[in-house]
Q: What sequence folds into this?
């Protein structure tokens, strides 16, 4: 440890490589914290403590806690989209059924809880304490990622028009954001819905998302 109590590699960031290493470290710690607690419980102070930096130093890289999670979400989606083609039905040969494509999409994103957690927190929390410039930068990158996802889906469902594929992605995000909290309730709610009389209220995320996406794409292919 250095004299200021920080890891030696974090005492100075004098060049772009060191600054990028520090930025990556902040995002890695944020991702780890999300496995331990919900976004709402993670403060910038705790994030800085876990990284081994002062809160002031973290703010040099991300203006607020929300900006950290914006960057983490876009990074995580980018990595997911690199892997997604192998998890969807092949785009070559006979086109797969739309049902097979959206089911694979639902199960792929369900295996990435960090993305689901952050998407579900966007409208309710993360877009609150942030500057217009930071939101604009996040949304421009986020839009590019949505275009990539729409392209992957359209390769497998040629009947989708470009606008329909974009709408499918936008609606998918809304469905994920809406379903995720209900599929991950508080301990008291999780215990209560074990009552057979409340079985209908249990949300199995991947199954419910798959069904909702099938209904969505069926409608998009008809209009």
A:
């Amino acid at each position: 440890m250095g004299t200021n109590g920080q890891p030696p590699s974090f005492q100075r960031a004098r060049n772009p490589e060191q600054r990028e290493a520090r930025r990556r470290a902040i995002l890695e710690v944020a991702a780890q914290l999300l496995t331990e607690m919900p976004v709402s419980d993670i403060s910038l102070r705790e994030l800085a403590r876990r990284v081994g930096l002062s809160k002031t130093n973290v703010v040099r890289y991300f203006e607020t806690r929300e900006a950290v999670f914006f960057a983490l979400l876009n990074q995580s989606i980018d990595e997911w989209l690199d892997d997604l083609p192998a998890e969807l039905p092949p785009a070559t040969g006979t086109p797969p059924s739309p049902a097979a494509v959206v089911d694979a999409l639902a199960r792929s994103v369900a295996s990435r809880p960090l993305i689901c957690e952050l998407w579900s927190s966007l409208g309710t929390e993360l877009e609150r304490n942030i500057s217009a410039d930071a939101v604009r930068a996040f949304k421009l990158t986020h839009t590019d990622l949505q275009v990539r996802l729409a392209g992957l889906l359209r390769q497998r469902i040629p009947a989708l028009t470009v606008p329909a594929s974009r709408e499918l992605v936008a609606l998918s995000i809304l469905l994920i954001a809406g379903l995720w909290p209900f599929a991950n309730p508080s301990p008291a709610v999780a215990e209560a819905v074990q009552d057979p009389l409340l079985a209908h209220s249990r949300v199995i995320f991947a199954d419910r998302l798959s069904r909702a996406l099938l209904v969505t794409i069926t409608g998009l292919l008809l209009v």
Observations:
- The chain has a mean pLDDT of 90.
- The chain has ten helices and no strands.
- The radius of gyration is 20 Å.
- Residues 132-156 form the longest helix (25 residues).
